[in-house]
Specification:
The structure is a homodimer of 532-residue chains. Chain A is of the alpha/beta class. Chain A folds into three domains: 68 residues, no CATH class; 210 residues, Aldehyde Dehydrogenase, Chain A, domain 1, CATH 3.40.605; 145 residues, Aldehyde Dehydrogenase, Chain A, domain 2. In chain A, 35% of the residues lie in helices and 18% in strands. The first copy, chain A, is built from 16 helices and 19 strands. The first copy, chain A, has a six-stranded parallel sheet with strand order 12-13-11-10-14-15, with helices on both faces. Chain A has a four-stranded antiparallel sheet with strand order 18-5-4-19, with no helix packed on it. In chain A, α12 links the parallel β10 and β11. Chain A starts with 20 loop residues before the first strand and ends in a 9-residue tail after the last strand. Chains A and B meet through β5, α12, β15 and β18 of A and β5, α12, β15 and β18 of B. Chains A, B: It catalyses: L-glutamate 5-semialdehyde + phosphate + NADP(+) = L-glutamyl 5-phosphate + NADPH + H(+). Chains A, B: It is an enzyme of class 1 (oxidoreductase).
Chain lengths: 532, 532
C-alpha cells in the first residue's frame, strides 16, 4: 500500500511520522529509504519536484488518491484546506503546532503528576485567588466577547447566556476550586484495592492520571478554570479548545491558569489550542490524546463522537430529562420541582424537557395549578399525542417526544401509571436525569430501581444533577455514556488505575499442580476515601 | 437528505426503523408517509416495483448511492453481500435475526438483573456443575473442532493451542466460576458512595449492569462459560459471537449456559450469534449494544475498534510486555522469571516479548545463564540494534522493537539504566504488563511509579497479569484502554453506576443566595467490598 504522504523516515520503520507541513529548511531532518521496494521508493524525487515547484511560487501537496483513509475526493479535500497528505509551504507559522503543544503538555503533565498532592492543591488555590484578584480584567474581557456576540447576532440567546460571566459566577467558581483543592489531596496514588495473592506476593490497585485530556467547549468560559483545576488535581495534562466567541475571556483565564501552574514549574501542562485548529483534526490525534471531553451543545458532542477515531469521548449528547407527577404527588412539591426543573436555567442539560402526568391528575386542582404556573413563567407548552387527545383546544402537538428544547419550552404527556412513565422514559429519554414526584415510598423506590438513567431522583429537582451540587467539587461534565463515568463527573472520572505486584521471584509455574505455592487471594482493607 | 433504504414508518418519525431484509409478507407492517415532501415521497412506488421484480425472480436492493454512511461503492458493496439498504427476499431465514436476538437478550437481561444475587449465584454454580458433569460431551465436541482445524491446516499452532480444551482447563474453569458465584453476591446494587447533600436530601451512587454486551472471541472456547458467568453475575445481557473453528464446542457450551439460566426462567439472556453474521454488521448495532469486548488476536481487536462506531470497545490490541533485568538483579529470580514470562504460555498476551538487560550484566555469568536457558527452552532470539552492536556474531536483528511474537521468540535489547528501560517501555511497549527484576527496593519502587502500564511488577512473572491470578474470579479480558477498566477485568468492569437522590421537595433555588437551605455534602461511610 502506498503511504498517504511524506514521512520523516522510511514508512513502516519504528519511528516514522507523517509530515503535515513541510518547510524547505526541514529537509535535513528526513531520512529516505535506501532500498528500493515497490510502492515505497521514489519519494526523494517527488520531494525534489515539489520543492522546485514551490520555488516557482506554486503550492504543492503530496497525497495519495487511493489511500483508504481518504474519502475518495482528494482534490476537493485539499482545496477545502483539509489536512491531507503533506503540504509544502515557504512560511513557517508562528507558535507551536498542536502536536508540539501536546508533547509539551505530556512532558509537563508528568512533572505535575510527580508533585506532592499538597503542591497540586496549592496551584489550584492560587488559581482560585487569581479569579477573585483579577475579577475586573476577566469581566472586561468577557464584556468584549459579549458585545461581539450580541452585535454579530450569530449566537442564540441560550448561547449568549452561557457566554456571560458575572462576579457571582466567578465567586462560586473560586469556592468550587478551593473545595476541590482540599478533596483532591488523596486522589492520585490512592490504593483502591489490596490483595495478598500468596505469601510475599502482594497486589495493589492504585489511582493514576489518565494522561493527556482534550476538552472542547463552546461559549461557557467558566468551563476553563473548572476543567483546568480538575486536570491539575488529577495530575493530567490538558489541551483546551474553546470557541471563537469566547476567545478574549478564554485567553485571560488560560493566562491565569499558567500563572498558577508556573509557581511549581509546570506552566505547560495546560495548553490553549488556537481557534484556527479544526476540531476534526484534533480528533484524529489518537496516539497523542487519551480522552476527549466535549462540553457544549448536543450537536457538538455528536459531531465529536463521530469524528473521534479511537479516542474515547466522555460526554452527554442529549439531556432529555423527565419529571413524572404520580397520582400520589404532593401539590406543593410538584409545583416547586416542575418550576425549578424547567425554569431555573432552561439552557442546562439537566433542565426538564418532558413533564409526564398521571392520568388521574387531569382535571384536578394540581393540574390547573401546574399549567397556571408554567404560563406565569412563560413556558411554551407542546402537547404529546395522548395529552392532545384529552383536550378540546390543545397546544401545538410535539414533532418528536425526544426533543431537547434548551429553552422555556416543554412537552406534556399523559401516562396511565408509574410503569408507563418508566416505559416512556426508556423509549424517548436520553438516560440523563429523571424525576418522580410522589408521596408513596413504594412507588418511588420502584421508579428509582427501574429507571435506567444516570440520575434518578425522588421529590427533588432535576437541576441537582451537577458535580458541585453532588459534592464532587468542580465538574468535568455529565456523562450519559454507560462506561467509565456516568452522570456528573468530578475528579474520579479523570483517573484510571494501575496494578502493582510486588513479589520475591514467584512464577505462575510455582502455582501449577506440581508447584509448591497456593493462591491465598486475601483482601486487605484499604482506607476509605473521605475518611482518612 | 434521502433515506438509506426502506423504513417501516416515514423516515424521521420517532419510531421509524430501517428494514434490512423485506419479505413480501411483511408489507402490512409498513406505514408510508402521507405527505409528499421532497426527497422522502415515492417509496411506495419503489416497493411495488421491487416486489414485481422479485416475483419475476430478480433479487432487488433499494439503497441510496449518495448516503454519507455508504463508502461510495454501493454496487460493489451489494454484490459482496454487505448490509446496504433494504434487501428484498422471498425466503425468510430460519431462526431469529441478530436484532431480534438482541431484543430477547435485553428483555431476559432485565429479568436477570432483578433476580436476587443468590439466584444469579445459583445459575453460575449450576453452570460450573454442568462443565464437570458434561465433560465428556464437551471434550468430544472440542475434539471434532480440533480435528477439523488440524486437517484444514488453516490455523497456526498458537491458535490451535487456544482452541484445545482439556479436563484440567474445564476443572480450573469450574473453580473460577464457583469463586465468582461467591464474590459476586454484593456486586449489583452495591452502594459505592453515600452523601448527605442537605437535610433530608440524600445521594447514593449504586452499581448497576451496563446493559447488553457483545463479546467476540476467536478460537478459545473456554472464553464462553467464563464470559457468560461474568455477564450473569453482573446482571448483563450477553451476545456471544464465536469463531467458526470452535463452533461445535461453542454450541454445547452455550446449550449448557442456557440450561443453567433456564432454572430461573432467563435462558434468553445469553445468546449465541450465528457464525454467518459478519463482525462489521454487529459493530454497527449502536442503539442495541452497550459494550463490545473482543477476545482474540491483536488484529481482531484492532479491526473491531475500527468497525465499532459509537459503541465502546474494551480490550487490548497488543501485549508487548517487557522484563527488565537490573544490574542488581538476582540470578535465580531472573532465570525463573524470564523462563516463566516467555515459556509458560507463549501465545498469551501477558507473555514477555522483549527482554531488557542492563549493560553491566553483559559478559557476566547471569547473562550467559539467561542465554543458555533460552536456548534450552528453544526460544528464538532476535537482537535489538544496541544488543547487536555489542556482539561479534549476533542473532538476526529485529525488524521492529514493537513486535508481539506470540510464540517461542523474543527480542533482547541492552539499556544503560533503569531510566532508559522506562523510556524504552514507554516508546515501544503497549502499556500492558512490564516487570523489573532487581534486589534494590529503591530502584524497584521508582520503576513501579514511573512505568505507565496497566500492570507493573517487581520480581514476579508477567504471567500473573490475569483476572484469576489476581483473585478477580473469572476474567472478561485484559484492557490496555486507559478508561473504565484497565488491566485484567473481572466483574467490576461489567458494572456501571447510577446516582439516586431522595428528597422531600428540594429545589436548587432553595440553595441560592436568597434561599433557605445550605449544602452539607457529608460523606456517609459505606460497607467496603469484600468485608461485609
Amino acid at each position: 500500500m502506498s503511504p498517504p504522504g511524506l514521512y520523516d523516515r522510511p514508512p513502516g520503520t519504528d519511528d516514522a511520522k507523517l509530515i503535515d507541513i513541510f518547510y524547505p529548511g526541514d529537509q535535513q531532518s528526513i531520512t529516505y529509504g535506501t532500498k528500493s521496494r515497490v510502492g515505497i521508493g521514489g519519494m526523494e524525487a517527488k520531494v525534489k519536484a515539489a520543492l522546485w515547484a514551490l520555488q516557482g511560487g506554486t503550492s504543492v501537496v503530496i497525497a495519495n488518491g487511493t489511500h483508504p483513509k481518504v474519502t475518495g475526493h482528494v482534490i476537493t479535500d485539499i482545496v477545502e484546506g483539509k489536512k491531507v497528505g503533506t503540504f509544502f509551504s515557504e512560511v513557517k507559522p508562528a507558535g507551536p503546532t498542536v502536536e508540539q503543544q501536546t508533547e509539551m503538555a505530556r512532558h509537563a503533565g508528568r512533572a505535575l503528576a510527580s508533585l506532592d498532592p499538597e503542591q497540586r492543591g496549592e496551584i489550584i488555590c492560587s488559581l482560585a485567588d487569581l479569579l477573585t484578584e483579577k475579577k475586573d480584567e476577566i469581566l472586561s474581557a468577557n464584556k468584549r466577547d459579549m458585545e461581539l456576540a450580541t452585535t454579530s447576532g450569530r449566537l442564540s440567546q441560550p448561547l449568549i447566556d452561557r457566554l456571560s460571566l458575572s462576579s457571582a459566577k466567578l465567586n462560586s467558581l473560586a469556592i468550587g476550586l478551593r473545595q476541590l483543592a482540599v478533596s483532591s489531596r488523596d486522589s492520585v496514588g490512592r490504593v483502591v484495592r489490596r490483595t495478598r495473592v500468596a505469601n510475599n506476593l502482594e497486589l495493589e490497585q492504585i489511582t493514576v492520571p489518565i494522561g493527556v485530556l482534550l476538552v472542547i467547549f463552546e461559549s461557557r468560559p467558566d468551563c476553563l478554570p473548572q476543567v483546568s483545576a480538575l486536570a491539575i488535581a488529577s495530575g493530567n495534562a490538558l489541551l483546551l479548545k474553546g470557541g471563537k466567541e469566547a476567545s478574549n475571556t478564554n485567553r485571560i483565564l488560560h493566562q491565569l491558569t499558567q500563572e498558577a501552574l508556573s509557581s511549581h514549574g509546570v506552566a505547560d501542562a495546560v495548553q490553549l489550542v488556537s481557534t484556527r485548529e479544526e476540531v476534526e483534526d484534533l480528533c484524529r490525534l489518537d496516539k497523542l490524546i487519551d480522552l476527549i471531553i466535549p462540553r457544549g451543545s448536543s450537536q457538538l458532542v455528536r459531531d465529536i463522537q463521530r469524528a473521534a477515531k479511537g479516542i474515547p469521548v466522555l460526554g452527554h449528547s442529549e439531556g432529555v430529562c423527565h419529571v413524572y407527577l404520580d397520582n400520589e404527588a404532593s401539590i406543593d412539591k410538584a409545583l416547586d420541582i416542575v418550576r425549578d426543573s424547567k425554569c431555573d436555567y432552561p439552557a442546562a442539560c439537566n433542565a426538564m424537557e418532558t413533564l409526564l402526568i398521571h392520568r388521574d391528575l387531569l382535571r384536578t386542582p394540581l393540574f390547573d395549578q401546574i399549567i397556571d404556573m408554567l404560563r406565569t413563567e412563560r413556558v411554551k407548552i407542546h402537547a404529546g399525542p395522548r395529552f392532545a387527545s384529552y383536550l378540546t383546544f390543545s397546544p401545538s402537538e410535539v414533532k418528536s417526544l425526544r426533543t431537547e428544547y434548551g429553552d422555556l419550552e416543554c412537552c406534556i404527556e399523559v401516562v396511565d401509571s408509574m410503569q408507563e412513565a418508566v416505559d416512556h422514559i426508556h423509549k424517548y429519554g436520553s438516560s440523563h436525569t429523571d424525576v418522580i414526584v410522589t408521596e408513596s415510598e413504594e412507588t418511588a423506590e420502584q421508579f428509582l430501581q427501574q429507571v435506567d438513567s444516570a440520575c434518578v431522583f425522588w421529590n427533588s429537582s432535576s437541576r441537582f444533577a451537577d458535580g458541585y451540587r453532588f459534592g464532587l467539587g468542580a465538574e468535568v461534565g455529565i456523562s450519559t455514556a454507560r462506561i467509565h463515568a456516568r452522570g456528573p463527573v468530578g475528579l474520579e472520572g479523570l483517573l484510571t488505575t494501575k496494578w502493582v505486584l510486588r513479589g520475591t521471584g514467584q512464577t505462575v509455574a510455582d502455582f501449577s499442580e506440581q508447584g509448591s505455592m497456593k493462591y491465598l487471594h486475601e483482601n486487605i482493607p484499604v482506607p476509605q476515601k473521605g475518611f482518612s
